[in-house]
Write a structure and sequence with these properties.
This is Membrane protein. Pfam families: TadE. InterPro entries: TadE-like_dom (IPR012495). Helix 1 packs antiparallel against helix 2. The protein contains 2 helices and 3 strands. 27% of the residues are buried. A 3-stranded antiparallel β-sheet has the order 1-2-3, covered by helices on one side. It is of the alpha+beta class and 115 residues long.
């Protein structure tokens, strides 16, 4: 009788552990995509639309089916650029929605003259 109770508990814990690992992997992919977008956006003379395209393509190429429906947005504030990548992590549990949001910031490159 104890085994009949123990198997579903072990199976549920294993499934939750695997879902957690998938969520962490999707977070890492989203952060890497945001960093790629920032790398493009902070370059001298670059524009924000190019950074979002690069970030989304990177997330799709690297994330595969682990990061679903990735979407990137970028913004500039003062001398800093930021790229945000959002998506959903693959979930093995039905009706479980695992949202992923990662942001990367960096200073904008600019030319300066020595004083």
């Amino acid at each position: 009788m104890e085994a009949a109770i123990l198997y579903p508990v072990v199976l549920t814990l294993t499934l939750l552990l695997v879902n957690t690992a998938l969520w962490f992997h999707a977070r890492n992919v989203a952060l890497a995509a945001a960093q790629e977008g920032v790398r493009v956006a902070r370059a001298y003379g670059s524009n924000l639309s190019a950074s979002t395209v690069v970030a989304e393509r990177f997330a799709q190429r690297v994330g595969g089916s682990f990061l679903l429906a990735p979407h990137a947005s970028a913004g500039r504030t003062g001398g800093t650029v930021s790229v945000t990548v959002q998506g959903e992590a693959l979930a093995l549990v039905p009706l479980l929605k695992l949202t992923v949001t990662q942001v990367a910031h960096a200073p904008i490159e600019r030319w300066s003259t020595p004083t």
